[in-house]
Design goal:
The protein has 26 helices and no strands. By secondary structure, it is mainly alpha-helical. The protein is globular, with a radius of gyration of 26 Å.
């Protein structure tokens, strides 16, 4: 059971927990939301340290609010799914770790950060992030539109929209939507001291700046919907008064939207685009794909982390993006974990939300932010962003403690066996972080850096000989990656890719490099045979050895898995072009590739060569 909420004094361990959680929120948020594998190495270690401090504290470890237990069945099921259902184990375990970290933060913030000064420290860290995010958003809008954190360049599709520290405007928008209601509540509550209200006014203004400059239609609609729904979910007033409050919220949101539409050109562009497209244009493609994956695997899902690969079977012609996620966390969960996982997760969340909705005052306002976040999950993947997942879990814990209060026992309720189990959980998670997570994230960081080098060569059509040094460094990084994490099938495939390109630098070694490419691709396929790219790599390796028929069989298998991918059709065209008798089919395959992606540079070059040769 939890300790009484909001005591004035805190133990050293509680201060340590609040400090570690605050540091983690700051770290993950300022590092592009924590999505990079190098950032995740630090994040998992900070969560592990938080768990050790919490479960090693005999007083705090004996508390267990029932809300924390509700999510444990899903965490256990997700682990089982990653281990025995998902064909994408390296992705499934990473997804499980993301869920587990959020659950641990929820548990520890709920049971182990109860003192008002400690909660104020965590809230202050979020307020500081709000100020920093607004400063970055203003700089991105009025100064350098291509600047984002960590020395990277903003994606062309987001130029003109502020992303703050995240790199994605929708992430900045939902971060502001999550924090605006509680921040504004501090300003409006007369019980707060004047300096606190002044500081809260600055934070609220900063959040509004981020909220507007992100130009996130989903975040705008989600916050407006949450403000309208909140009175209906609150008790203590008549239905007529609650409906009046809802109508007032809608009228206020409409008036503000009208003012911004008239005075803010970029908002006018985004709204006009929404009207022109009659809603969303590309997201429904992903939603339909996720639903068809669920229909094919209704009970247990296609496997944790599997949406991106399984989507290829349902990719429509002309859709060229690499989605990664379904842009709807609810559908993504259905596709990955099936109805079993969805019911376990959504059921637990519904119970906690129902009890937490009773919170009043500041926590009641924070519930409105949580509601806006939950609504926005209908059109985005915020729970896959570590910073947003941890922030959401933290605020949800504080709101749950207030709305679902439980009387504490006279002494910690766990006996020696329970405390031993708690200590074992902390030690186990720390060992997991050090032995598996850190090496896996290090390997993934090496892989991503190397893959960027290779993809840049392919996109520009550069001669590998001119970038031989970079390519050799990429090959060394990939060799190191598969050594650190032999279970990362994508790293094996990328190693095969780099080896095949190296043959263009050393043409005399083509056959030997082809054998190495085949071995690396076989390692990837042994881990997961459902990714089209892995079959392409094996087919390339076989072609390099002169085993043309066997290579063709692999490319055909890739086309069966991803029939609407332009790059797979390019490899089919290139494979066929190796046989002079197949120039006609090769030309036809190149035409299919260019129909799917008219800007595919390598296919254009191949098409010209095939057209010029008899």
């Amino acid at each position: 059971m939890p300790a009484p909420t909001h005591p004035d004094r805190a133990s050293a361990c509680e201060w340590a927990r609040a400090s570690l959680l605050s540091a983690n929120l700051v770290w993950t948020t300022l590092c592009l939301g924590g999505v990079l594998p190098g950032t995740k190495m630090v994040t998992v270690l900070l969560v592990a340290a938080l768990a050790v401090v919490h479960f090693g504290d005999s007083e705090a470890a004996g508390r267990a609010h029932p809300a924390g237990w509700l999510f444990l069945p899903f965490i256990a099921y997700a682990a089982a799914n990653a281990a025995w259902v998902s064909p994408f184990h390296w992705l499934g375990w990473a997804d499980w770790l993301n869920w587990t970290q959020a659950w641990l933060v929820f548990w520890i913030a709920l049971n182990g950060i109860c003192a008002a000064p400690c909660r104020a420290l965590v809230a202050s860290s979020l307020a500081g992030l709000a100020l920093a995010a607004a400063g970055m958003a203003a700089y991105q809008h009025f100064g350098n539109t291509t600047w984002i954190m960590l020395g990277r360049t903003q994606a062309q599709q987001f130029v003109g929209r502020s992303t703050g520290p995240f790199g994605i405007p929708n992430s900045l928008g939902v971060f502001a939507a999550l924090l605006i209601p509680p921040s504004a509540a501090v300003v409006l509550r007369s019980a707060r001291g004047p300096w606190v209200r002044v500081a809260a006014s600055l934070v609220t203004a900063a959040l509004l700046v981020s909220f507007v400059l992100a130009i996130s239609r989903g975040a705008w609609i989600a916050l407006a919907a949450a403000l309208a729904l909140r009175p209906l979910l609150s008790g203590g007033r008549s239905l007529a008064r609650r409906l009046a409050a809802t109508l007032a919220s809608l009228a206020g949101a409409a008036a503000l939207a009208g003012l911004l539409y008239a005075t803010f050109p970029l908002m006018r562009v985004r709204v006009d685009q929404l009207v022109q497209d009659m809603g969303e244009k590309t997201r429904p493609i992903l939603w339909r794909g996720a639903w068809r994956i669920f229909e094919a695997h209704p009970g247990l899902g296609g496997g944790a982390g599997g949406f991106n690969a399984l989507f290829e079977k349902y990719r429509p012609q002309g859709y060229r993006d690499e989605p990664i996620y379904a842009h709807c966390d609810y559908l993504n969960t259905l596709a990955d974990y099936g109805m079993t996982g969805f019911v376990l997760l959504a059921g637990a969340a519904a119970v906690v939300a129902f009890r937490a909705s009773r919170a009043k005052g500041l926590e009641g306002a924070a519930f409105t932010g949580l509601l806006a976040f939950g609504i926005h999950l209908l059109v985005d993947f915020h729970l896959k962003i570590p910073s947003l997942a941890l922030s959401f879990a933290t605020i949800a814990a504080f709101v749950t403690a207030e709305g679902w209060s439980v009387l504490p026992p006279a002494s910690p309720s766990w006996g020696p066996a329970g405390r031993g189990l708690a200590t074992g959980v902390a030690a186990g998670f720390l060992a997991l972080a050090l032995v598996w997570a850190v090496p896996a994230f290090r390997a993934e960081a090496l892989r991503q850096d190397a893959r960027r080098v290779i993809d840049r060569m392919g996109a520009t059509g550069a001669d590998p000989k001119t970038g031989a040094g970079e390519l050799q460094a990429a090959r060394a990084s990939l060799a190191r990656a598969v050594h650190l994490d032999p279970a990362n099938a994508q790293a094996w495939s990328d190693k095969a890719y780099a080896d095949s390109i190296w043959a263009l630098v050393r043409p005399g070694e083509t056959s030997g490099l082809g054998a190495e490419t085949e071995r690396d691709a076989d390692a990837a396929l042994a881990l997961c045979p459902l990714v089209a790219e892995f079959w392409v790599r094996k087919g390339t390796g076989l072609d390099m050895q002169g085993r043309w028929v066997a290579g063709g069989d692999c490319i055909v298998r890739a086309l069966q898995l991803a029939p609407a991918r332009a790059d797979v059709w390019y490899y089919q065209a290139y494979h066929l072009s190796l046989n002079p008798n197949e120039s006609g089919p090769a030309l036809a395959a190149a035409d299919v590739c260019l129909r799917l992606d008219p800007g595919f540079l390598l296919a254009q070059v191949l098409r010209q060569r095939l057209g010029a040769s008899p």
